[in-house]
Write a structure and sequence with these properties.
Blueprint (H helix, E strand, L loop, with lengths): L2 H64 L5 H29 L7 H29 L1 H16 L11 H25 L3 H9 L1 H20 L1
Length: about 220
C-alpha cells in the first residue's frame, strides 16, 4: 500500500472514530436528559394536584366571608383563608411553569440554569412563606369551623369568646413561629443549612442536578 493510500485510510478511520465518539456522547447525553425529565415529571404532577386544593381553600374563604358580612372577625378569617388559598394556587403554578419551561434540547448549562431557578424558588421563596403561613393558618380554619357551629344556633363566635381566648390564639401562633425560627438558627449554627436547602428543594431536583452534573463531567472528560 502506498503512503498516500495509508494516509487516506487513517483519515477515514479518524473520521469514523470521531463520528462514533460524537454519537456515543449524544446517546449518553440524551439518556441522561431523559432521566432528568422523568425525575421532574412526578414533581410536576404534584404541583398540578396542589392547584385544585388551593382553589378549594380560596373558594372556602370567599364563601365564608361573603356569608358573614358585618361580622368583622368572621370576615377576617375568611379573607385570610382566601389569601392562603390564592397563594396555594400561585406558588405551585409558578413552580409548574418553571418545570415546563425546561427545554431538554437546549444546552446542558441552560437546563442547569432552569433547574437552579426552580431550586431557588422552592428554597428561598416558597418554603419560607409556607413555613410562616403554616404555623398560623390552622387558627382561622379552626375559628371558621367553630363559627359554623354558631351559625346553627344563630350566634356569633366572637360575641361568646371566653376571657383569655385572644391571648391563647396569639400564643398559639407565636410558639410555632418561634420554633421554626429556632430550628433554622440551630441548623445554621451546625452548618446544616445546605442539608435543609436540599430537603426543601426536593429529592427530584437533587437527582436531576446529579444527572446533569454527570453529563457535564462526561463531556469534560470526553470532549
Amino acid at each position: 500500500m502506498e503512503l498516500d493510500d495509508m494516509k487516506l485510510a487513517w483519515q477515514v478511520l479518524d473520521r469514523r472514530l470521531a463520528q462514533q465518539h460524537s454519537l456515543n456522547l449524544q446517546l449518553f447525553r440524551d439518556g441522561k436528559l431523559e432521566h432528568v425529565r422523568r425525575r421532574l415529571q412526578p414533581l410536576a404532577w404534584t404541583f398540578a394536584l396542589q392547584i385544585p386544593l388551593g382553589i378549594a381553600m380560596m373558594l372556602w374563604g370567599i364563601s365564608f366571608w361573603s356569608t358573614h358580612l358585618g361580622d368583622a372577625g368572621s370576615m377576617a378569617c375568611g379573607i385570610v383563608m382566601q389569601v392562603f388559598g390564592t397563594l396555594s394556587v400561585f406558588f405551585p403554578a409558578r413552580a409548574l411553569a418553571l418545570v415546563q419551561a425546561i427545554d431538554y434540547a437546549s444546552p446542558v448549562l441552560e437546563i442547569q440554569r432552569r433547574i437552579a431557578d426552580l431550586r431557588a424558588w422552592r428554597v428561598k421563596v416558597e418554603a419560607p412563606v409556607f413555613a410562616v403561613i403554616g404555623c398560623v393558618i390552622w387558627i382561622p380554619a379552626l375559628l371558621m369551623l367553630a363559627q359554623y357551629e354558631g351559625d346553627r344556633v344563630g350566634v356569633s363566635l366572637w360575641d361568646h369568646l371566653r376571657p383569655g381566648t385572644a391571648s391563647w390564639l396569639v400564643l398559639s401562633a407565636v410558639v410555632p413561629l418561634a420554633a421554626v425560627g429556632l430550628a433554622c438558627l440551630v441548623l445554621r449554627r451546625m452548618g446544616r443549612l445546605p442539608w435543609l436547602a436540599n430537603r426543601l428543594a426536593g429529592a427530584a431536583v437533587q437527582r436531576a442536578e446529579a444527572e446533569l452534573e454527570a453529563v457535564m463531567r462526561f463531556e469534560r472528560e470526553n470532549g
